[in-house]
Design goal:
The protein has helices at 26-43, 66-81, 97-107, 114-125, 129-143, 179-210, 228-236, 278-283, 285-292, 308-321, 359-370, 385-403, and strands at residues 12-20, 45-54, 88-91, 110-113, 217-222, 253-259, 262-268, 296-302, 329-334, 374-376. By secondary structure, it is an alpha/beta fold. Helix 5 packs antiparallel against helix 6.
């Protein structure tokens, strides 16, 4: 029998599960699980174990195979016997209601997928009424097709047809609505209300954007945790919340920035991530409108991340999905102070990989590819910050002259020529 001892509250422990498939090799699966572990850490959980399995595609019933599920179940039981209870199992892909129900029946612990974990972090990060409404709508969108597993133990309540001789119980004759149908109706009604509320917020934000005057709009976009908020703080001399956690920023922050003689508007937006659910993007429409209506996008990239090129692709695809593809864009490679590479020995005859490239080689490669549309900085160390400001100034000035040819700059000085 376990003894109950008063102690400090411990963080929940988590087990991660991912698949190696035809379209996702072992290296990529491990990278996804690294990101999932970072998500779990952001949500306040401690990862204690990872499981992977090679399958052509996810099992439609249990995601992993029967043997792997038994292996995970055995590990959970062993940990429990050793008084190291596993609080949850997190799967790297979105699970269906059937998969969740079957996995829960076998593992008997809390089951989460990548989407529900991201939603949990969003709910934790939401500060304003706008963000909270958007998160709540996304949660209901996620919950609706998975309602069935919550009510599998309930039978139909009535089902009789009144005077027609039905067998319904007294007081329950009528449509015989199940608890599941009631909940679905309640959620749909709540979603309608939230959509109306977001429509009102959209109108308010549209009015705010119209009232911002004749100023060029610049939006910081990028993968989550690449340093957008730190850069925002440096440019706008503001104090936007910045933290080494995923999704530190949910609400779009807009600040007026003045570089030399030129004022413009700078917005910091929610970070993107791999496997970001479509429902989440839809729910954050009003936030992403700042991106859609921007005149210039500054795509911030963490160059120290080993998989930064795939992150660039994810951001570009998401931008295209929300209708912001094809806008004028500059790539800002941040965190050059944290960049590392593996130096090859002289007698090592194996081909060089990207991991062996020096920062200078990487810079030359991208500058040749992007011409003058990329910059390399460290927002934290303020490296190349003046060069960055001058380049942004020139770009915004060009856009300002094109868009408002008869609108003089508000601040005249020698740079106005």
């Amino acid at each position: 029998m376990k003894e109950f001892v008063i102690s400090e509250v411990q963080a929940e422990t988590a087990v991660l599960v991912g698949l190696i498939t035809q379209t996702q090799d072992e290296r990529k699966t491990n990278e996804y699980l690294d990101e999932l572990a970072f998500l779990a850490d952001t949500a306040g959980a401690v990862v204690v174990k990872r499981f992977t399995q090679r399958l052509d595609q996810a099992n439609s019933v249990t995601y992993v195979g029967k043997g792997k599920l038994e292996e995970i179940s055995r590990y959970i039981r062993e940990e429990e016997e050793a008084e190291r209870e596993v609080g949850m199992v997190i799967f790297d892909d979105e699970l269906s209601a059937k998969q969740i129900r079957n996995i829960e029946a076998e593992l008997k612990v809390k089951i989460l997928d990548r989407t529900s974990l991201i939603l949990d972090i969003f709910a934790m990060r939401a500060q304003t009424a706008n963000a909270k409404t958007q998160v709540e709508l996304a949660q209901y969108r996620y919950m609706l097709p998975r309602l069935q597993r919550l009510w599998t133990h309930l039978e139909r309540q009535g089902g009789g047809s009144g005077a027609g001789g039905g067998k319904g119980s007294v007081g329950l004759r009528g449509p015989g609505e199940t608890q599941l149908e009631m909940d679905r109706r309640i959620i749909l009604n709540r979603m309608s209300l939230l959509k109306e509320r977001l429509a009102e917020i959209d109108k308010q934000k549209a009015t705010q954007r119209k009232n911002r005057g004749r100023l060029i709009r610049v939006a910081l976009v990028g993968y989550t945790n690449v340093g957008k908020s730190t850069l925002m703080n440096l440019l706008a001399k503001s104090e936007v919340f910045a933290e080494n956690k995923l999704f530190a920023t949910l609400d779009t922050t807009v600040r007026k920035v003045i570089i030399e003689n030129l004022p413009f508007l700078l917005s910091d937006t929610v970070g993107f991530i791999r496997k970001l659910p479509t429902d989440l993007v839809d729910s954050f429409k009003s936030t992403l409108d700042e991106v859609r209506e921007a005149d210039l996008l500054l795509h911030v990239v963490d160059i120290s991340h080993p998989d930064f090129e795939e992150q660039i692709e994810v951001v570009n695809k998401t931008l295209a999905d929300i209708g912001a593809g094809g806008k004028p864009m500059m790539i800002v490679f941040n965190k050059i102070d944290a960049y590392t590479y593996i130096q090859k020995d002289e007698d090592d005859l194996t081909p060089r990989t990207k991991a062996n490239w020096t920062l200078e080689e990487l810079m030359r490669t991208w500058m040749a590819k992007m011409e003058d549309n990329c910059l390399f900085i460290s927002a934290r160390e303020r490296t190349h910050l003046e060069e960055f400001k001058q380049t942004v100034y020139q770009r915004v000035k060009e856009l300002h002259v094109q868009k408002y040819p008869y609108n003089d700059f508000l601040y005249q000085n020698e740079y106005a020529e």
